[in-house]
Amino acid sequence: MTSNNPDIKSRLTDVGYFATDALATALQLAIDLGRPLLLEGEAGVGKTEIANSLAKILDTKLIRLQCYEGLDASSAIYEWNYQRQLLSIKASEFSDRDADELEDHIFSESFLLARPLLQSIQQSKPPVLLIDEIDRADMEFEAYLLEILSEFQITVPELGTIHATSIPHVILTSNGTRELSDALRRRCLYSYVDFPNMEHELKIILARLPNIEQDFAGQIARFVQALRKEELEKVPGIAETLDWAAALCNMDIGNLLEEPEKVQSTLICLLKTESDLKSIVPEVTGRLAGKAA
Amino acid sequence: MMQTHPLTSRTIGFMDHLRLNGFVLGPAETQACLNSIMLETTGERAVDHDRMKALLTGNKDEWDSFDALFESYWIGAGKSREQLKKTTPSTRTSKNLPPAWKDHFGEENEADKAPQIESEGDAGFGEEASGRLIAVDRNTRMKTDMRQFVEPDEIAAAEALAYRLASAIRYRLSRRYYNSKKTTRLDLRRTIRSNIKYGGTPIDLRFKAKPEQPVRIIVFLDISGSMQHYSRFFLQFVKGLVCQWTQTDAYLFHTRLVRITDVMRDSNSLRAMTRLSLMADGFGGGTKLGDCLETFNRQYAKKALNSRSIVMIFSDGYEVGTPEHLCEQLAKIKKRARRLVWLNPLLGWENYQPVTAAMKMARPLIDHFAVANTLESLAAIEPDLMKL
User: Fold this and answer.
1) Which residues of B touch A192 (CB under 8 A)?
2) Which entry of A134, A284, B251, B375 is 20 to 30 Å from B147 by CA?
3) Class of the domain covering B96-173+212-386
C-alpha cells in the first residue's frame, strides 16, 4: 500500500495549509492504512481546516458532521421521511395494497433520508468525513460511531444492512471538553495539533492575506506569539490572528508601534473574554508591540 | 516475512518499553507498527518516529512523553529503560511513605489492610440497595464524632459504612429519570410501523422519553493539618464514590492540588496507596484552597465540569489565601457546575459558627452547606444530591 503521492506536505502547502512533519505523516498514514485520524488541540489551531484542505488535495467531497450534546442516530446516520410516508399511506388508502406490501413500500430506500454518516459510505469516490468536536457528543453516540468506523456498514432494521460503496477518509476533532473512550482512541491514529510556531504563522498570514507587507506580517506573528505566553483565559488561535491582521490592514495600520490606541481597540479580534481584555492593558500591548517590532 | 525483518524484535521491545510507561497497547498496535515500518523503507528515523507517534499515542500526555521514550529506547540503547524500572512508583514499598502522610492512613492500613477494602467494595456492589438499612442498623456508631475512631476495628467498620453509603448514593442517582410527561415526544417511526395494520391511521401512538443522564460528582478533599483526623475517613468515602460511580473525579488539596481519580481506580490497592502517598508528598501545614481551585479551573475544569456536575468540597474552611481569591475561583466553578456542596466537619462541633472570613464570604455561593463529621451527617446529604 505504498502511496502514490509521497509528499502530502507540499500538496497541503499548495492549497494554503502549512502542516508540521508529524501532522503530514499522520495524515499520510491515515490514508495509507485507511484508519480514522483523531486530531486534538486547543480551539482555533486549524483542526477543521485540515479536513477542508485534505478534501481539496484529494479532489473529493467533504462531508461534515458537527457533534453536539444530544446528537442522535436520526440526525447523524439516517431518518425516515415521515411526511412522505404519511402521504404515501393516505394516497394508497383506496388501492388494493395489503399491509405487508404497503410496509415494504414506505420503508424502502426512497423514503430514507441519508444523514452525514450514511452519505459518506454511499459515495462513488471516497469522501473526507469530518466528525467535528466528537467530545461534545454523548458516550452512547461515541459507541455507535465506533461500530460504524470499524465495519463501515449501517444496519437499518426495516431495510437490512447497507454496505459501504467507498470507505471515507475519516477525520475526528476534539477540543478536550470530555475525555474520549479508550476504545475510540485505539481505533484512531492520533495527532496533537499545537499552535503554529513563528515561521508557520507568518507563512499562513502571508498566504491568506496576499496584500499584506512582509515586515508587518512578521510583526503581527511575533506579537501574537508573545501574546500567547501571557496569562490568558482563552488563547488566540490562527483564525483570530487572521482576523486581527485583516482588521489592521482595513484600518490602514502598517506598523504596530504607530497609533497605539487604534491597535488597542482592534485587540477585540484576538481576545474573546472580558477578563482577558482587561488584563492586556495598553502598557502590555505597547511592551509586546515593542518586542515584536 | 514479518518475522525476518531485522527490526521485529527491537520493535516488540519498544512496545514493552511503552507499556511499562503506561501506554495501553495491544498486539494490534504492534502489528500496525511493524507494518508501518515496512510500508516504506526510507530508513529515516524522523519519518519512522512520526509514524509510530501517530500510531501508538492516544492522548496529549502520551503525545508529549513519546519523544523522550522514543529517544531513550532507540538512541539510548535501552539504558534508561532500566532506570525507569527502578523509579516506577509501583515498586516503591510502603515503608518509604512520607512521614506526614502516615497520619492520614494510619499504620495498619498501609499494606495488609487495603486489599480488604477492595473485597468489601465487591460485596457492596451487589447490595447497593441495602446501603441505608445497614447505616441505620449501626445507629450508635453513626453518631460518634469521627475523631473518636481510634481502634483499628472501629476504623474498618467506619470505612465499610462509608463505602456502602457512597454506593447507595450512586444507586439512587442512576435510577432517576426525567418526568416523562414533560419531555415525551411522539416516536414517529414506531407509530407509523405499528399503525399500518389500521391502514395508516395513527390510532396506537408510541412515545419516547429521554432517560436521565448520569450525574457527575467532583470531589475536593482537604488533607491539610487541621483536617487530618477526618481526611482518612473522607478518603475512604471518596474511594467508595470513585470506584462505584464512573462519573466521579476526585482531587486532594492542601497547598497544592492533586488529581487522584486514576490512582483511586487502580485495582491494586497497595500500589494505589503507595502512589497516593507519593502524590501527596511534601504537603505543608496550611490550606491554599483558592490557589488549588485556580489550578483546577485552569487545568481540569473544562473537561471535568458540565451542567450535570455536583461539586463537593470537604474542608474546614481555614484558608491561608485571601477570601476574595477563593470566592472568585468558587464563582468560576459555580458558572460551570450545577451544584456546589460544602461539607464541613467542624460544623458539628458545639458552639461552632462558620466565622472564618473565607467561609463567610463563600457562603452565598454554596448551594448546600452541611456538617460532615459523622456517618449520619454524610448519609443526610443523599436527599440533597437527589434534588438535582
Assistant:
1) 57, 60, 63-64
2) B251
3) alpha beta
Helix H or strand E segment including B371: strand B368-371
Asked whether A85 and A109 are in contact (CB, 8 A), the reply is no
Q: Which residues of A touch B40 (CB under 8 A)?
A: 2, 6
Residue keyed to cell 396506537: B204
Q: What's the gap in Å between the CA of A176 and the closest CA on chain B?
A: 6
Type of residue numbered A33: L
Closest CA to B58 of B48, B47, B66: B66
pTM: 0.68
DSSP one-letter code for B313: E
d(CA A255, CA A270): 17
What is the β-pairing status of strands B185-186 and B207-208? antiparallel
User: A41 near A192, Cβ under 8 Å?
Assistant: yes
**ipTM attached to this prediction:** 0.79
According to CATH, the topology of domain A8-77+115-192 is Rossmann fold (3.40.50)
Residues in chain B within 8 Å Cβ distance of A102: 196, 200
Which residue in B62, B69, B65, B51 sits closest to B14, CA to CA? Answer: B69
User: In terms of DSSP H, where are the helices of B210-251?
Assistant: 228-244
Residues of A in contact with B196 (CB under 8 A): 89, 99, 102-103, 106
From the list B32, B189, B303, which residue is nearest A178 (CB)? B303
With b for 16 or more beta-carbon neighbours within 10 A and e for fewer, the B267-294 pattern comes to: eebbbbbbbbbbbbeebeeebbbbbbbb
Q: Splitting chain B (388 residues) into consecutive groups of 10 residues, what average pLDDT does each group show? A: 68 88 84 76 76 86 87 67 40 43 42 36 37 37 52 62 61 42 68 80 77 76 77 75 77 83 73 71 69 87 80 83 86 84 77 70 83 72 63
Task: Identify the closest residue of chain A to B25 by CA–CA distance.
Answer: A186
Distance CA A29, CA B38 (A): 12
Q: Does A146 touch chain B (CB under 8 A)?
A: no
Neighbours of B216 (CB within 10 A): 20
Domain layout of chain A by residue ranges: 8-77+115-192, 80-110, 198-292
Separation in Å, CA of A274 to nearest CA in chain B: 14
- A180 contacts in chain B (CB < 8 Å): 59
CA B199 to chain centre: 55
Residues A20 and A154: beta-carbon distance below 8 Å: no
